[in-house]
Amino acid sequence: MTNHQAASYTTEEIADHLKVSKLTVYDLIKKGDLRAYRVGRQMRIDAEDLEAYKDKTKSGGVIEKQTTAPSLKPETPIYRTESPAPPRQYQAVPLQQLIISGQDISLDLLANAIGRTGAVHNPLRSYTGSLNSLLAMYKGEADIVSTHLFDGDTGTYNLPYINRILSGREYIVVNLLSRSAGLFVQKNNPKNIRTWKDFADPSIKMVNREIGSGARILLDEKLKLEGIVPRHIDGYQSEEMNHIAVASKVASGIADVGVGIEKAAAMVGVDFIPLILERYDLVMFKTAENELLREAIRSILRSPEFQNEIGALGGYDLSLTGTIMFETE
């Protein structure tokens, strides 16, 4: 980036020029070290404000603007050297806790990506199911939550639940990824399980997920659409806390079927019957305090580095990653 070629710069251009991350630029703006303004959804920094920031951070003197000396041009600065200030005791800047709630491994990669930026946020992980994560956000106990909640009435994911639980609040929904969900069955599928209707077979024993998980809600909504009474299913009350545990129960022969995602089936070594492509979204409140964080999260999600990390895991669809799915006005 060359000075004076443009009246203003984007945060990406500033990050490239200063050789720092975009999140660091957001942090400088938030602390008032770098002046910025908004044009639509984009932050802009004027060239003169960039130069002012660079001058302020230079060592070797304090710049004062000349206003009275007749022998110098008005725009020529005078440098006044000063004795070095005595060393101050180091005080660590406290990190602001950022709770990311959800169970998919992609959230661990997101937390790591935030941590690598060197920003003032300290990402902490909460491994809580989708519905309980939303309830935690409503109570102020989570900052970024992930959801994959199927609504049988509309045939859509997430928004019907988010709109009801966060009614009256301002929030944004951003896609993290999409993934294939369906049924774990034993190798070679000896019970010939193919669809949701097969849960009505009294010879089939299942293993379930905990109440509030996305997989449990998907099952319950599909059973309701098929007219199947859950309490009539052998094993419906048997609960596990994650996809791997459910797949392991099927692999061991303790259960014939369970609901989960394709990646867990591949990790455990059970067969998988894909039945739906579920949308896995992130939800964040919209506040003045987290505006820069929201932009930074979307920047991470859309970055080639992050998408390459997720893509290397396999089993994920990233075609919508970073896309705003819904935003309150």
UniProtKB/TrEMBL annotation:
<dbReference type="InterPro" id="IPR041657">
    <property type="entry name" value="HTH_17"/>
</dbReference>
<dbReference type="InterPro" id="IPR024370">
    <property type="entry name" value="PBP_domain"/>
</dbReference>
<dbReference type="InterPro" id="IPR010093">
    <property type="entry name" value="SinI_DNA-bd"/>
</dbReference>
<dbReference type="Pfam" id="PF12728">
    <property type="entry name" value="HTH_17"/>
</dbReference>
<feature type="domain" description="Helix-turn-helix">
    <location>
        <begin position="9"/>
        <end position="56"/>
    </location>
</feature>
<feature type="domain" description="PBP">
    <location>
        <begin position="124"/>
        <end position="291"/>
    </location>
</feature>
<dbReference type="Pfam" id="PF12727">
    <property type="entry name" value="PBP_like"/>
</dbReference>
<protein>
    <submittedName>
        <fullName>Substrate-binding domain-containing protein</fullName>
    </submittedName>
</protein>
